[in-house]
Description:
Layout: E1 3-10, E2 13-20, E3 30-34, H1 42-52, E4 57-61, H2 84-97, H3 100-116, E5 125-130, H4 132-143, E6 148-154, E7 172-178, H5 184-197, E8 201-206, H6 223-241
Parallel strand pairs: 3-4, 3-5, 5-6, 6-7, 7-8
Antiparallel strand pairs: 1-2, 2-4
Amino acid sequence: MPSKLLRIPTADGSADAFAAFPDRGAQHPGILMYADGFGVRPVLRDMARELAEHGYYVLVPNFFYRHGPAPVVELPAHIGEEARPAIFAEVMPLIEAHTAERAARDADAYLSFLIAQPEVSAGPFAVTGYCIGGLLAMRAAAAHPDQVAAVAAFHGPVYADGPDLFSTLTAQAHLGHAAGDVTAEALSELDQALDVAGVPYTSEIYPDTTHGFTMSDTDAFSPSGLQRHWDRLLSLLDRAMRND
């Protein structure tokens, strides 16, 4: 499985990134993958490789690049509950500094970079993300309705911007929520906002999961949750990007 370490020119500098893609000469649909709040690390690179094995070029940018190359925060090999408070104390200021305006400029740069890669087909593209990356994925898809055909967010605060975010969203969407992250009432409100906006979507609470369930290097990891995530994500991509 070929992979690359890359530098992406942005309006604010240069973002380091990781890309994985099939070992074949043809061009492949491009996917922008946003990490969770812990950033780009081995588990994200492994997930990018696994997704690339299904025929996609997967780009994983370090969206904290303004603060240094990944990993911006020193992380243990396994992020246990005892380590989380100290790590979050470092990570949360970085997340708060990553404003919607910064995220929008970066999404422009990331998608432009994908378009320019010789291994990437002309489009459409997909965007997926985890935790805060789920919100970044939704923002990128909403800002680029002419380029993004599919968007997925897992255990992410996708309603943080309110219903206005969905007004320009035309991509097919899947939202996979951790059971501990959202109440039935909050899920109903979110789904109603998507219905009003006319977004084609699936939205579900994954059983017996907690926040971060897709990340195998954390105590929140759920093997069944991760598999359900792959099933839903690959099905979404098949529907939105391989309907020819």
